[in-house]
């Protein structure tokens, strides 16, 4: 009876997928699987032909989408078949949809490998049906405070699931992720050596974190990206490894290359946070049997997920959009670091918004104090434009606390595209950086075309 129910539910899912592909493009990444799970809560546990040794879960706060896409691209580029949720639907509905798409009408999987980006809160439930043998933890940072409260909530959820039979791929430079080393007999560390962009923190608002093992203070010798670097604990022997299994060294950002285990890789994305994703991809794919030559071939034609970094044209101005996760200070810091490397004259257009995850909606301003706005003062920003119905003045105040002259800041307490573009018109600077959430970016994308996107 269960088998019949599964097949009927699967057929419904395939029908919904076909319908969404024709009539509701964009909804087919989650909706078919979500409906199937509503009918049959253990739906994803009934698929056959899944070898747990060839299943990879990628989870964590930052980088899981890019890392998963790199892994899938590398495997497919080498001729291997992979089932994945590349569209980013990373809860159980998205996983179910990916399985529906890649299975026969009886639920037998048609791919050899499986690589899924997994939402941290959904990890326990998904693992109960698909016991992946390879689990990657990118990092665990402040994120989605309405749901998570703070990162140790996720740490406790993970500890319930991790076991000795898993192979854990852990970020050697991130204390919470590395602390899971005690939960498995098979741990593979990956990381990035000190680079030209590594830094230390010594600002008024800078804070560290308690040790995940003994709760004493964690000290970072240096950071490679925000809250990830070489560390040690003041109270116990917990620290970064002396020898990391897959370690990106001799990173040359100008040449987009680095060494890993005696092989020189040349890549297409040169920002510091990407190097961690490359190192993780090398670690996972090597353990799945890929060679360095196969990995290098895949890296040479890898393209990042659409929507993370895009360009808009408005009259003579070029708007460079950097997408952030607005409940996550690390992604905002990464965006600011990227902007700070551009020494040419520029404008900064920043629109932090009300967070609309689930009711009641809320505004989050504290994470702006976890990032370094001070570095922007030295990098030729001619003017700052803060817009938002919710937190435009809060954003401007954070900039003023960083020492930015208030006369260099415009505040637009609304989300009017016309008002934003009119403010841009006041400045004879064509290089513009845009930081906002994805929905607002798409609105501005339409407006720039309407009001002068073809002029240049």
Briefly characterize the structure:
The protein is an alpha/beta fold and 456 residues long.
Strand content: 15-25%
For the secondary structure, the number of strands is 17
Number of distinct helices: 14
Low-pLDDT segments, ≥5 res: none
Describe the 3D structure:
The longest helix has 22 residues, at about 1-25. The chain has a 9-stranded mixed beta sheet, with helices on both faces. Strands 12-13-17-14-15-16 form a 6-stranded mixed beta sheet, with helices on both faces. The radius of gyration is 23 Å and the shape is globular. A hairpin with a 2-residue loop joins strand 10 (about 255-260) and strand 11. The protein has helices at about 1-25, 30-40, 65-75, 90-100, 125-130, 145-150, 150-160, 175-180, 270-285, 290-300, 330-340, 390-400, 415-425, 440-450; strands spanning about 55-60, 80-85, 115, 135, 165-170, 185-190, 220-225, 230-235, 245-250, 255-260, 265, 310-315, 315-325, 345-350, 380-385, 410, 430-435. The protein has about 450 residues and is of the alpha/beta class.
Topology diagram in text:
Layout (H helix, E strand, L loop, with lengths): L1 H22 L7 H9 L15 E5 L4 H14 L4 E3 L7 H10 L11 E5 L5 H7 L4 E4 L7 H4 L3 H8 L7 E5 L3 H4 L7 E7 L25 E8 L2 E6 L12 E7 L4 E4 L2 E4 L5 H16 L4 H9 L8 E6 L2 E7 L5 H12 L5 E6 L29 E7 L4 H10 L7 E4 L4 H9 L5 E6 L1 H13 L6
Parallel strand pairs: 1-3, 1-4, 2-3, 4-5, 5-6, 6-9, 13-17, 14-15, 14-17, 15-16
Antiparallel strand pairs: 7-8, 9-10, 10-11, 12-13
Helix pairs in contact: 1-2, 2-4, 3-9, 3-10
């Amino acid at each position: 009876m269960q088998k019949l129910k599964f097949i009927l539910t699967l057929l419904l899912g395939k029908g919904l997928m076909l319908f969404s592909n024709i009539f509701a493009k964009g909804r087919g990444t989650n909706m078919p699987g979500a409906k199937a799970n509503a009918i049959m809560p253990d739906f994803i546990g009934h698929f056959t032909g899944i070898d747990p040794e060839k299943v990879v879960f990628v989870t964590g706060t930052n980088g899981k989408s890019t890392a998963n896409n790199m892994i899938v691209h590398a495997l497919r580029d080498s001729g291997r078949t992979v089932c994945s949720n590349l569209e980013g639907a990373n809860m159980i509905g998205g996983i179910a949809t990916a399985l529906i798409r890649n299975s026969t009408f009886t639920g037998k999987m048609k791919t050899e490998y499986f690589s899924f980006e997994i939402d941290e809160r959904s990890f326990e439930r998904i693992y109960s049906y698909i016991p992946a043998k390879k689990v990657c933890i990118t990092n665990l940072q402040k994120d989605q405070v309405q749901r998570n409260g703070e990162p140790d909530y996720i740490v406790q959820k993970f500890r319930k699931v991790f076991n000795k039979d898993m192979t854990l791929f852990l970020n050697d430079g991130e204390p919470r992720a590395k602390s899971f080393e005690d939960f498995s007999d098979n741990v593979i560390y990956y990381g990035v050596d000190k680079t030209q962009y590594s830094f230390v923190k010594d600002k008024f608002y800078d804070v560290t974190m308690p040790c995940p093992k003994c709760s004493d203070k964690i000290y970072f010798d240096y950071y490679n990206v925000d809250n990830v670097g070489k560390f040690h604990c003041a109270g116990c022997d917990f620290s970064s490894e002396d020898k990391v299994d897959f370690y990106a060294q001799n990173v040359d950002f100008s040449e987009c290359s680095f060494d890993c285990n005696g092989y020189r890789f040349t890549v297409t994305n040169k920002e510091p946070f990407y190097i961690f994703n490359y190192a993780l991809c090398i670690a996972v794919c090597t353990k799945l049997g890929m060679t360095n030559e196969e990995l290098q071939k895949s890296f040479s034609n890898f393209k990042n997920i659409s929507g993370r970094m895009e360009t808009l044209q408005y009259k003579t101005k070029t708007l460079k959009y950097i997408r952030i996760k607005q409940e996550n200070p690390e992604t905002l810091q990464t965006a600011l670091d990227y902007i700070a490397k551009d020494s040419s004259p520029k404008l900064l257009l920043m629109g932090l918004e009300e967070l609309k995850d689930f009711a009641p909606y809320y505004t989050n301003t504290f994470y702006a104090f976890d990032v370094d706005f001070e570095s922007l003062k030295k990098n030729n920003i001619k003017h700052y434009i803060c817009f938002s119905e919710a937190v435009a003045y809060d954003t401007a105040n954070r900039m003023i606390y960083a020492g930015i002259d208030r006369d260099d800041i415009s505040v637009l307490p609304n989300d009017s595209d016309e008002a934003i573009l009119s403010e841009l018109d006041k400045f004879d600077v064509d290089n513009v950086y845009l930081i906002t959430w994805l929905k607002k970016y798409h609105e501005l994308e339409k407006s720039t075309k309407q009001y002068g996107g073809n002029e240049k």
